[in-house]
Amino acid sequence: MQTFDEISITPMTKDFAQTISKWTYDAPYSIYNHDESFANECMDGNHFAFTSADGLLGYFCFGPEARIPTIEEDAYDDNFLDIGLHMRPDLIGRKLGSKFLGLCLNYALENDRASQYRATIASFNARAINLCIRNGFSIEKEVTHSRSQKKFTIVKYLHPR
Asked: Which residues are paired to 144 by β-bridges?
């Protein structure tokens, strides 16, 4: 199995964004699929690509883009930096999640983004929730997406600076 030892982080490019907008995840993970508007939405300076000699591996983002609209009024406070993390569909289940998450958190810390992080994950996505818990996150609460009515779990992490 490839380990992708040489993973780089680079600001999102239009080409990477267009490639990501074509990625398709099987149900129930298809909620993570993007449409063509993603290519424009992620050119905000808060989206970054994971790359290696094998090309584009995934991406992450910071800020409100990593949140969902909720029916709960006080789902998010301003004390945490929201993060979103996505892997190329064919890499899911290959034990790369901790590496990607660690790179994302280290990048945020090294670039003075924050030391308190929050992620919002579809509640059915036990793999992603367990990944976060194994890496020091704790479950904060469950919320409801205001459009789909699906349940999402908010997890938080305090970096031990």
From this structure: 151
CA distance 55 to 20: 12
Does any domain span residue 145?
yes
Task: Give the domain extent around 66.
Answer: 8-158
Phi-psi region for residue 57, left (φ > 0), alpha (ψ -120 to 50) or beta?
Answer: alpha
Q: Is residue 32 part of a domain?
A: yes
Burial of 58 (0-12, 13-18, 19+ CB in 10 A): buried
pLDDT tens for residues 1-48? 455 668 999 999 999 999 999 999 999 999 999 988 888 889 999 999
Task: Tell me the C-alpha distance between 61 and 107, whole Å.
Answer: 11
Number of domains in the chain: 1
Residue 2 lies in a domain: no
Helix, strand or coil for residue 20?
A: helix
CA distance 42 to 116: 22
What is the value of pTM for the model shown?
A: 0.91
**Paired residues of 98 in beta bridges:** none
